[in-house]
Amino acid sequence: MRQTASARTRTHRTLRPYAIGLVVVTAAIIGPLVHQSASSSAPSFGEVRRGHHAGATTEVDGAVTEADGVLPDGVTVFDDQYPGVANLDPDLLHAMREAATDAADDGIEFSLRSGWRSPEYQNQLLREAVAEYGSEEEAARWVATADTSAHVSGDAVDIEHFDATAWLSEHGAEYGLCQIYRNESWHYELRQEAIDRGCPRMYADPTHDPRMQQ
Ligand SMILES: [Zn+2]
Predict the structure, then answer these.
(1) Which of 6, 12, 49, 173 lies 20 to 30 A from 199 at CA?
(2) What's the gap in Å between 155 CA and the centre of ligand 1?
(3) What is the C-alpha separation between 56 and 49, in angstroms, rounded?
(4) How far is the CA of 102 from the centre of ligand 1 (A)?
């Protein structure tokens, strides 16, 4: 009895410093992660999101609405009351939902910055990008025309938050979900063959994509 009690005390005493150490270490690990996910994106994303996504709020000039695919903050791939989600290609949406369900097991939630867009919405984004970048040539590195955009055909999604894009860059190919452009870590499309063969080589930016040469 005595021995057990004293052993317990000893255990208790020796455990405490470890417990405190663990808290400190945990805070040290979680702190930067929280900070990272709160700022939600790498600097390169922040730099371009104004041009690429400026139309994603309804305030812009009232020209486009949710019916054009504008999404409010925090919309997930399961929120198909929004045309921006509901009008996506069904196979892409299915793959995104499977991936989102598995990512949720890892504590990661996918929200969509953008999905399907009407031609009007895409044109507005392009006008804004031309204004921002000063030329159609430079804007083309970030925003496609309504005729060429994979968003207008419902074949592309832009994912928010670094933790979600990091998860997809690691696991996306298993679902056929691939990053297409090296300069757009958030832009994903369905490439079914990736499930067997892995994702195809990325284009440096959309201007290198043959689909954009129309
Ligand atoms: Zn995109």
Answers:
(1) 49
(2) 9
(3) 10
(4) 22
State the distance from the centre of ligand 1 to the C-alpha of 187, rounded, in angstroms: 4
Chunk the chain into consecutive blocks of 10 residues (it has 214) and report each block's average pLDDT, rounded to whole numbers.
46 45 46 38 36 42 87 96 98 98 96 97 95 93 92 97 97 98 96 97 93 80
Other Cβ atoms less than 10 A from the Cβ of 136: the count is: 12
Residue with the two structure tokens 């945990």: 26
Closest residue by Cα to residue 75 from 93, 54, 49: 93
Q: With residue 94 as reference, give the H or E element that holds it.
A: helix 90-105
**Complete edge-to-edge strand list for the sheet that includes strand 112-114:** 112-114, 156-159, 187-190, 177-179
Q: Rounded CA gap, 77 and 159, in Å?
A: 10
Kindly give the distance from the C-alpha atom of residue 64 to the centroid of ligand 1, in angstroms, as a whole number. Answer: 17
**H-run or E-run covering 9:** helix 2-39
Separation between Cα atoms, residue 48 and residue 54, nearest integer Å: 9
Choose among 165, 66, 177, 49: nearest CA to 118: 66
Q: Checking DSSP bridges between strand 187-190 and strand 177-179, what pairing results, if any?
A: antiparallel
* pLDDT score recorded for residue 174: 98
Inter-residue contact 181 to 143 (CB < 8 Å): no
CA distance 205 to 183: 6
Which amino acid is present at 129?
A
Nearest CA-CA partner of 98 in 185, 184, 174: 174
Largest CA distance in the chain: 85
